[in-house]
Amino acid sequence: MIDCCIHVETSARPIYRIGYSFTMGRLSMRILPFLIPCCLLCACEQSVEKDPSVPKNKHDVIAPTSTPSTQPSLLDETERTLPDKSTKYTYTPPQDNSIILFGAFQTAKPTRWNWVPKNSASLLCKYEVVSESSDERAIFTVRQFASKDSGDLQFHIQRWTSQFNTEDGRPIKPKLKNFPFRGKEATQITISGEYTGESGTMHQANKTMLIVVFEEEGNTYFFKLFGQNIVVKEGEEDLHKVLENLKLLPALE
């Protein structure tokens, strides 16, 4: 005789298991779309490794790995250790105080002319001219340029003249004269009035600029005497004596 209860109990187990599997499958299908993105996101975060050498933000500072330089910085140099730029234009006077040296030439120095350091690399020499009758001073300078680079003389005369006005602001007319010099012809330009400078903003009354221009051995020389009217007038004779006594240095004759 067959026990039906046992048969029902044992036969119901597969049915229960099939139902459970079917229910879990449907549940898995519903949950799966949410689980996949979460798993991918977690995996990406774990796989990205930041370079520890890169600062986290702009305020982070990376410690140097190399040995710091032992060379001094300009910011650390004191006033005494910084180079003196004025030495570029500082030159010693001639050993013989009775002569003026410039380029390949020398000449006798007038008594009231005193050597002063040059303040420009374009100057061959610079002297202070002392007045006979006042405390005023004038400045004598010499410049030299290759004749092909010296420019047009008329252009220079216009430029120099534009730096002067009359007392009431009118243009100045320069005085020009030519004279024989070393077998050639030299040109003297004299301009007097209120000196306004190249910028036109200076207002120095009673100034005179006297310039002698001549050419020698492919070079053009500019002898300039500039200062108060009275000092330049007194120094004009001495300037012509400087020109008369001009000669080549012994080694170049």
Describe what you observe in this structure:
- It is a single chain.
- The protein has 253 residues and is of the alpha+beta class.
- It has 2 domains: 7-40; 90-252, 3-Layer(aba) Sandwich (Protein Transport Mog1p, Chain A), CATH 3.40.1000.10.
- It is 27% helix and 30% strand.
- The protein contains 3 helices and 11 strands, in the order αβββββαβββββαβ.
- The chain has helices at residues 4-47, 153-161, 229-244, and strands spanning 99-102, 105-108, 113-115, 123-130, 137-146, 164-165, 175-181, 184-195, 204-216, 219-228, 247-248.
- Strands 3, 4, 5, 6, 7, 8, 9 and 10 form an 8-stranded antiparallel β-sheet that branches. A 3-stranded antiparallel β-sheet has the order 1-2-11, with helices on one face.
- A hairpin with a 2-residue loop joins strand 9 (204-216) and strand 10 (219-228).
- The radius of gyration is 47 Å and the shape is elongated.
- It starts with a helix and ends in a 5-residue tail after the last strand.
- Mean pLDDT is 77; it is low at 4-12, 15-20 and 58-90.
Name of the CATH superfamily of the largest domain: Mog1/PsbP, alpha/beta/alpha sandwich
Strand percentage lies at 25-35%
Taking the sheet with the most strands, its summary is: 8 strands, antiparallel
Strands, total number: 11
CATH class of the largest domain: Alpha Beta
Measure the end-to-end span: 155 Å
Classify the helix fraction into a percent range.
25-40%
Integer count of domains: 2
Radius of gyration: 47 Å
Q: Can you give the mean pLDDT?
A: 77
Helix and strand element order: HEEEEEHEEEEEHE
Which segments are poorly predicted (pLDDT under 50) over 5 or more consecutive residues?
4-12, 15-20, 58-90
SS element count, helices: 3
* CATH topology category name of the largest domain: Protein Transport Mog1p, Chain A
What would you call the structural class? alpha+beta
Overall morphology? elongated
CATH architecture label of the largest domain: 3-Layer(aba) Sandwich
